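Students often ask why we bother predicting the structure of a whole assembly rather than each chain alone. The short answer is interfaces. A chain on its own may look different once its partners are present, and contacts between molecules only exist in the joint model. In this exercise we take two input lines together and write out one structure for the complete complex. Read the inputs first and try to guess which parts will touch.
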Amino acid sequence: MSYEATFRVWRGDAEGGELTDFQVEVNDGEVVLDVVHRIQATQAPDLAVRWNCKAGKCGSCSAEINGRPRLMCMTRMSTLPPGETVTITPMRTFPVLRDLVTDVGFNYQKAREIPAFIPPQGVKPGEYRMQQEDVNRSQEFRKCIECFLCQDTCHVVRDHEENKPAFAGPRFLMRMAELDMHPLDAAGDQGLDRKATAQEEHGLGYCNITKCCTEVCPEGIKITDNALIPLKERAVDRKYDPLVWLGSKISRRR
Amino acid sequence: MTTETRPPEAADSTGRGVHSPGRAAIAQRHLRLDRWWLPQVMTAAGLLLFIGYSTWRAFFGLHTSYAAPYVSPFYSPCLAANCPKMDGGADWALFGGWWSLSPALIVLIFPLGFRLTCYYYRKAYYRSFWSSPPACAVAEPHAKYSGETRFPLILQNIHRYFFYVAIPVAGILTWDAILGFRDPQGHWGHMGLGTLVLLVNVSLIWAYTASCHSCRHIVGGRLRHFSKHPVRYRMWTWVSKLNARHMQLAWASLFSVGLADLYVYLLASGAFSDPRFF
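Now the answer. The structure tokens for the assembled complex follow.
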């Protein structure tokens, strides 16, 4: 079955833009990205939209649909209010390049600022051995497709451009949690305290755990409960809890 | 085909947040169509209801805080000398006779601190009372934001100390519930509706306390090698299951503690008699 829908798509660039209305055909089973492609094919061939896999695995087609950060390829038309105009805008946290395409370079900059996994001394690639229960937590975070919807929705940078230099954002704080929980990461042996850098260099304290990152994650990663709060607790261990600090000095097991 | 919804230059009227230079020029603070404000209004209403009730009871409820064999959870343990005589209860008068205010104020500071610094309640009141943010992808009204990096909000990091105190408090409330298996004359082997009320309340308080994120971290979350600590790993998995229900347990225990107090108040004020099961 087909019907006509009204789509309101933001068109413009860094100099300015506007919401533009399109009357477009929608068919059963389609997702928002299908309709955007139809607009591109029939009415606005110069409409800029970033996409790739159409399967929710590449993280390219992030946008805001009716004001909510979502993947266009994973938003079924049948889940949107019938008969109402569908508004699509680019992610509003990042500089816009054109139409629905934004410059997400902020995220790559933040990724570069995080020291990578440091393998233990004397263990070569291919010789890593870990117990499954030791890597379960990290594996949840490895599901991240880097769509940057969590970065987009996080009010710390969305509503405060001036915080961008100081705050890595939920995706990269999760990366730090992943590395700090990694059973083989030897950052501590190299004098790198990931908990300290998370708090002092990457703005962990800016996060006020309001869970928007978790709400928008298309992979269903419990970013707040399983990464950000545990990382905050680890920072507390190190900085605010003398009992844990003393225990860690006495005990050799970690 | 084209509808101009606003002049392009209007988008940068505030020049900050979603209207920062370079971002898509959209005049509206948000484009959400759903009732995003409803959870915040309901949260604020629920919290204000409890704050209002508990303030009234904490300041003016001393003489209706005990209806043998039940004691209100707001007044246990009682650490001042002006408490009603609680047969077998936590009536310790550690503060002596100089404390003339309600003894509930001495004790309630600890559960209050525990909930105030709780990771769930932080989310709840940051959103509903401080609009930081009002809802996801809805622009907040504040010009500056430093989160929990500075005083006073950096004090949220002491949550685990309130967790440590919450354990003996829950233990005392458990003992209060056990004392409920007596009749008003102090004979064991009886049970009334009040016993059930206190048991449900203390069960929810234990579940809320055990589901705390700090508890989850302390029992095992801080480890890097679960395989070297199988007992703590098992405990961590149990706490993690509870932790997934932390929000529900926070609300359930908040209302249960209020209802347990209300039940004792109604008994003590003679509104009705406690239905006895045996």
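Check your guess against this: Chain B touches chain A through 64 residues (CB under 8 Å).
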